[in-house]
Write a structure and sequence with these properties.
The complex is a heterotrimer. Chain A is of the alpha/beta class. Chain A is about 35% helix and about 20% strand. Chain A is built from 12 helices and 15 strands. In chain A, strand 3, helix 5 and strand 4 form a beta-alpha-beta unit. In chain A, helix 4 packs across helix 5 and helix 6 packs parallel to helix 7. In chain B, about 70% of the residues lie in helices and about 0% in strands. The termini of chain B are far apart. Chain C has one domain: ABC transporter involved in vitamin B12 uptake, BtuC (Orthogonal Bundle). In chain C, helix 1 crosses helix 2. The two termini of chain C are about 20 Å apart. Chains in contact: A-B, A-C, B-C.
């Protein structure tokens, strides 16, 4: 492919030394994936690694992966190494913190496509960079419906890693989904402060169960601990990022999963020199998010109900944020009679608080 | 499932007490191990590496054999081997044992991450627990009093170490080597031999402390499993003044501190969670500043240990 | 005079021999390790070389990784010369970075050079005071500096997380909690013609200057006496407390400056990406360099190369990323064990000092 050759030519000095893979370079697409954590974490990185295989298979590319790369200049160097030493012509830099690296590198490598999972691209940024990200709050909303149908204590427990807009949106959607069924539903939320701290996460889940929560959902790098601790204590749980149904055969309800394989479409377009979006956000409608397989407690009736609401979300007739809505400090979020379109990314990114009914 | 029960501030208290039981076990084992090592006159700053290696080995062996107790044993053996490496290098002349500890910290973590890759996405068996809370009507209390077998073993070991240090020949040998290697030589003791055994025993216990993380709470193998429990144990030993019984109290206190942040958040207090999380570090530093003196050793400190000089 | 030259030659030759011996032992153990894991050791070693030095990209990667390590290593090395074991580089780096941000946001509109100097000073002074506090606690309260700096690491990270979570948070950074940013006009760029930031030059210059100070000044002499024998230093009338505080301050300033460059040249703002074990690897660098600031430059580059080549090991051999940690651990332990070899190479006595080629003197390490 032309891009590959261009990349090598541009690299210049890199070709001087014998690269073990140089023979592969000229005629094959090579896709690099860079992860900030271990790619078998049953969480964010697993969801990416799963998609990496699907994407590279879909275009017949060779996949190279590197994990545990800190979001510092180390990431720049890893990406550069993939391009210059391994002749990668597409690089997915998956962690939020890698966007700066992409901004630094993309202008120097116009023949390489840079993908990022944060949807931070804005006009003026390099054309060979793109960001995409699913509206994970949509499956959270559906999980909330299931939780409301099955919860006996009418309390959901939510654990978030950091006070960030998408964590707020996920928790809000979870409770708003539940309240669409039963307005008395409540949610206790805990922010642990760490993306990966299993002991703290387990403590948070235990605290929530002690508070009477009987459905647990955890938003961190991996939600394995949340699902496992909940199962051990005999309460229900929902997964996050990745399919965790096998970890809790009794209490698992469903989960909110990414569908990063959407990126394959951009790679195809890029290789065929066709247009592709530099920035894409989407939910069920664009096939960028999905629900995990239902657990045994979720009855056929509930499944049918959830499917109906999902169609409503796709049609934008069922909206997550519908007024009148206050945050949990009493400030108005959405006025009465107003509602926020599910596609309104600007509103969602402006959310800085939990909705009314969330304690925490 | 579970009946609704909102116990208000009692709920916070119960969560903290339960958390103390749940979180303290690794601290108990690692700090007891370090007490034994330091009583012999050595510091092993590599316990974090041993703890992580212990967690990984325990999980790997438990998954492969199906027996969590074999996993615990494997963790102990892995820990003792790493302890032997520490001792072997520290026995050489002109080698600083703290530096060896830092090297072992890096090596142990590296080895565990290296060998543990295939076990990250696997679910494994867990250790049994004993329910002491059947008398209570509240599920929260019942859960808080689900005591893991390793916790009880830790209490037994603490008692044994406390008794053994005072009343056995081995305890005396350890203390002599730790307080004055000259006196130990005069008594005809092989100081390096005693310290090697003490470091290996310390490693054995630290490895078991790691096994608790992967085989009970939170369970599973993950590169972020330990958040520095092994490093903290070094401070904890000073906090407990080299007394095995105080180690148990201090471990419970550190465990409770971990549980405090989440418990307060369920009660609606959600500010400053990072500072709550760092409470054990602030506390230990404050205690050190309060109780240290440039003119004398800390009470209970072995004189030969470099960190008490 | 002749004896002086001879002993100097011998100590240099001994250090070189012992260090290379330790390196050789490390590579043998490491080769066995990867061989057991099913990789061809020769190919792996070649990839280490290739990923670390062979191409311009690799070399730039190596030097980029090495830059902060030169400075964080000073945090352990300089106090060590006075007989202290400080492991607080991680915390001092974070505190230095925070100070850089807090001062940096006030410098909107400043010209480049004064702005950068003020921020660097802020980082260095903050890091220096942080470690000097540990030195003070040791001298005046008898608190062990190893333990206090260990605790201060955790405290520094907690303080940073607390601040970037609220008090100094920039909410426009949506995906990661991050602090306010320093002005774009004060961001430090790359060296001319090389994709490595200026922190490399600053780090190397700091090491050179400190090497000179430690070798050629009375201060350096006094510190070495103190580190060799505190009693002798007392008898000689040195102001021990001042010396210890100064060494701690200098060391902490090194790590703080590393933090300043992480902000000015890498991130532009503070967030969790500052905590990537640079301080802990710095301890390793200091010990490998035997606390000699000049040797730190070389050792930091060596360790930078190990980290840099880790990527190739992952991508080409399917070796886990932790391979580099294993290699670092083995290297660290071999070097420590090699300390025992000093003074045991009597065969060196048979070599006549006349055979010393001139350049060796500049290589003393």
């Amino acid at each position: 492919m032309l891009q590959g050759v261009g990349g090598v030519a541009l690299a210049g000095t890199a070709v001087n030394t014998t690269s073990l893979l140089s023979a592969l370079a000229a005629d094959k697409t090579i896709i690099g994936f860079v992860y900030e954590g271990p790619r078998q974490d049953l969480g964010f990185n697993s969801s990416l690694s799963r998609a990496a295989k699907i994407i590279s298979d879909s275009v017949g590319a060779k996949l190279i992966e590197q994990e545990n790369v800190p979001a510092t200049l180390a990431a720049d160097k890893v990406i550069k190494g993939m391009i210059e030493l391994d002749q990668a012509n597409v690089v997915f830099a998956t962690s939020f913190g890698y966007w700066e690296s992409i901004l630094r590198l993309a202008p120097s490598y116009p023949n390489v496509l840079f993908g990022h999972m944060g949807a931070l691209w804005k006009p003026g940024d390099p054309k060979n960079a793109l960001g995409y990200r699913g509206y994970l709050e949509e499956p959270h909303y559906l999980a909330g419906i299931i939780a409301a149908r099955l919860s006996k204590t009418k309390k959901i427990g939510f654990v978030g890693a950091k006070p960030l807009y998408f964590i707020y949106n996920n928790c809000n959607a979870l409770l708003l989904g539940a309240r669409s069924i039963d307005p008395n539903m409540q949610c206790n939320a805990i922010i642990t402060g760490d993306w990966n701290n299993p002991v703290k996460e387990a403590e948070a889940v235990n605290s929530l169960i002690d508070r009477g929560c009987d459905v647990i959902m955890l938003n961190a790098d991996s939600c394995k601990v949340g699902v496992e601790v909940a199962e051990r204590r005999g309460v229900m749980s929902c997964g996050y990022h990745y399919d965790l149904s096998s970890l809790a055969p009794k209490g698992f309800l469903t989960g909110a999963e990414w569908r990063w394989e959407k990126g394959g479409e951009f790679v195809k377009a890029w290789l065929n020199k066709q247009p592709f979006p530099n920035m894409l956000r989407g939910g069920f409608k664009e096939n960028m998010v999905a629900m995990s397989p239902y657990g045994p407690l979720v009855t056929e009736n509930i499944r049918a109900e959830v499917e109906k609401v999902k169609q409503g979300i796709i049609a934008d007739t069922t909206r997550i944020y519908t007024g009148p809505l206050k945050d949990n400090k009493g400030n108005e979020m959405v006025a009465a009679g107003k509602s926020i379109s599910n596609e309104d990314n600007a509103f969602k990114m402006s959310v800085k608080s939990f909705v009314e009914g969330v304690i925490g | 499932m579970q009946e609704a029960g909102d116990l208000g501030w009692w709920g916070v208290a119960i969560a903290v007490i339960g958390g103390a039981f749940r979180v303290s076990t690794p601290y108990i084992f690692v700090s007891l191990g370090e007490v034994i090592t330091e009583k012999s006159g050595r510091v092993n700053l590599g316990l974090e590496g041993i703890l992580v290696m212990g967690a990984m080995s325990a999980f790997a062996v438990a998954v492969m054999t199906g027996s969590p107790w074999l996993g615990v044993l494997a963790a102990g053996i892995a820990g003792a081997l790493l302890g032997a490496v520490h001792a072997a290098i520290s026995n050489l002349p002109r080698v600083n044992d703290i530096a060896v500890g830092i090297a072992l910290f890096i090596f142990g973590i590296g080895l565990a991450f290296f060998l543990g890759k295939p076990f990250t996405p696997v679910a494994g068996p867990i250790l049994p627990h004993i329910s002491l809370g059947a008398w209570s009507a509240f599920p929260q209390v019942r859960n808080a009093l689900e005591i893991n077998a390793l916790f009880i073993l830790g209490l037994v070991v603490a008692g044994l170490v406390y008794w053994g240090l005072k009343n056995t020949r081995w305890g005396l040998m350890l203390r002599v080597c730790g307080d004055s290697s000259d006196a130990a030589l005069a008594m005809g003791l092989n100081v390096n031999y005693v310290r090697t055994v003490a470091t290996m025993v310390g490693g054995f216990l630290a490895g078991i402390g790691g096994s608790f993380l992967s085989l009970y709470y939170p369970g599973g193998w993950n590169e972020g499993l330990s958040s520095g429990q092994g490093l903290m144990a070094i401070a904890l030993v000073i906090f407990a003044r080299w007394n095995p019984i105080y180690c148990v109290y201090a471990s419970l206190l550190f465990g409770a501190a971990t549980a405090l942040g989440p418990a307060l958040q369920t009660a609606g207090i959600n500010e400053n969670y990072y500072l709550y999380g760092a409470a054990p570090y602030f506390l230990t530093l404050a205690l050190l500043i309060y109780s240290s003196s440039p003119d004398r050793l800390l009470a209970g400190a072995p004189a030969e240990v470099s960190i008490s000089k | 005079m002749v004896t002086a030259i001879r002993s100097h030659f011998h100590s240099v030759a001994e250090a070189v021999l012992v260090s290379f011996g330790a390196l050789a032992v490390t590579l043998i153990i490491f080769s066995a390790f990867v061989w057991l894991h099913g990789a061809n050791p020769l190919e792996v070693l070649y990839a280490l070389y290739q990923g670390g030095f062979a191409t311009r990209t690799s070399l730039e990667n190596t030097l980029t990784q090495a830059a902060p390590l030169m400075l964080t290593a000073l945090c352990t090395a300089i106090p060590a010369r006075a007989g202290l074991l400080v492991i607080g580089g991680e915390g001092a780096l974070v505190i230095g970075a925070l100070a850089t941000v807090l001062i940096g946001v006030l410098l909107e509109g400043w010209p480049f050079l004064p702005g950068v100097i003020v921020m660097s000073l802020a980082g260095a002074v903050a890091g220096g005071l942080w470690i000097a506090a540990a030195g003070g606690l040791r001298q005046y309260r008898g608190v062990n500096e190893t333990i206090s700096t260990l605790l201060l690491n955790y405290i520094a990270i907690a303080v940073m997380n607390h601040l970037i979570d609220g008090p100094i948070r920039d909410f426009s950074r949506t995906l990661k909690t991050s602090s306010w940013s320093i002005p774009d006009s004060l961001r430090v760029g790359s060296l001319p013609g090389l994709d490595v930031h200026w922190g490399l030059v600053v780090g190397a210059v700091c090491c050179l200057v400190l090497w000179f100070v430690m070798r050629k000044t009375t201060f350096g002499f006094a510190v070495d006496v103190l580190g060799g024998n505190a009693r002798a230093a007392q008898l000689a009338g040195f102001r021990i407390n001042r010396l210890v505080l100064a060494c701690c301050f200098i060391g902490g300033a090194g790590a703080g400056l590393a933090g300043a460059f992480e902000i000015m040249a890498v991130h532009g703002f503070a967030n969790e990406s500052l905590v990537v074990r640079l301080g802990y690897i710095g301890i390793l660098v200091a010990f490998l360099a035997r606390h000699n600031p000049l040797a730190i430059i070389g050792v930091a580059i060596l360790l930078g190369a190990i980290t840099a080549s880790g990527g190739l090991l992952q991508r080409r051999f399917g070796l886990p990323d932790a391979t580099t940690l294993v290699l670092q651990g083995i290297l660290f332990m071999s070097v420590l064990a090699s300390n025992a070899a000093y003074g045991r190479m009597s065969f060196l006595e048979m070599i006549r000092p006349a055979a010393v080629p001139e350049p060796v003197k500049s290589k003393e390490a």
